[in-house]
Design a protein that fits this description.
With 218 residues, the protein is of the alpha/beta class. It folds into two domains: 3-107, ATPase, nucleotide binding domain (Nucleotidyltransferase, domain 5); 118-208. It has seven helices and five strands; from the N terminus they run βββαβαβααααα. The protein has helices at 35-44, 60-69, 79-86, 94-107, 118-150, 165-175, 179-208; strands spanning 3-9, 13-20, 25-32, 51-55, 74-77. The chain has a five-stranded mixed sheet with strand order 3-2-1-4-5. α1 packs across α2, α5 packs antiparallel against α7 and α6 packs antiparallel against α7 (179-208). It is elongated.
Length: 218
């Protein structure tokens, strides 16, 4: 017997519905929101699905990789296109959505989405973390420039040498003119130096890391 399964995924649990090739529901229920929970649900019912579908979302990449690693025939489908079919159903609930997804699995009326490799995600994470640190550094520099202009102190443009040491030198010099600016300078010089250092470390990690093609995914 051929079985088709829909998974409606939330952060805590997954609603599951299995239908046969005629579209009749043969099993439904919930399991923990992890690949092993899904596999255990099938084992407990001695059910071997021909196709499993779940929608793209926050957990979809991790879930798809896990299900595939367990040998389950899972496919991540475009949530926006699946929504058009699911929204037409009168009963709106997690269980009803799981049944609707199972019917899509049976009919094949869905659009699969590409799932990035783990190497690609690792590189994306490195690049994203580096970019965030650079933005934090620029925000800090912009804030300091604005504060110092209030006191008539204008910082000159600086380059990248020695991890922007010229910026910290100018800030230290400004701190010598006022005790309040001294307190600000002491705090911000340390923070700025740390941001420059960790951003440089991540930059080196990005350059040494793998370079897979970064495709759009769920």
């Amino acid at each position: 017997m051929e079985y088709y399964v829909g998974l409606d995924v939330s952060l805590k649990e997954i609603s599951i519905c299995a239908v046969d090739r005629d579209g009749e529901t043969v099993a439904r229920g919930v399991c923990p929101a992890d690949p092993e929970g899904v596999a255990g649900w099938f084992r407990n019912r001695d059910l071997t699905p021909r196709r499993i579908v779940h929608e793209s979302g926050m957990l979809s990449i991790w879930l798809q990789r896990g299900l595939a690693g367990l040998g389950l025939p899972a496919t991540c489908i475009d949530a926006r296109k699946a929504h058009k079919s699911l929204s037409a159903r009168l009963n709106k609930s997690d269980a009803a959505d799981a049944e609707g997804l199972a019917q899509l699995a049976r009919t094949g009326w869905f659009t699969p989405v590409h799932i990035r490799s783990e190497e690609a995600d690792r590189l994306r994470s490195l690049v994203g973390a580096r970019g965030r640190l650079i933005r934090l550094r620029k925000d800090l520099e912009g804030h300091i420039r604005g504060v110092l202009k209030t006191f008539g102190i204008r910082m000159i443009s600086i380059g990248q040498g020695r991890q922007r040491q010229a910026f910290r030198d100018q800030l230290a010099a400004a701190g010598e003119t006022d005790p309040v600016l001294r307190a600000i300078a002491d705090a911000f010089i340390a923070a700025h130096a740390k941001l420059c250092q960790v951003a440089d470390d991540l930059d080196k990690a990005v350059k040494k890391g793998p370079r897979p093609i970064l495709s759009r995914a769920a």
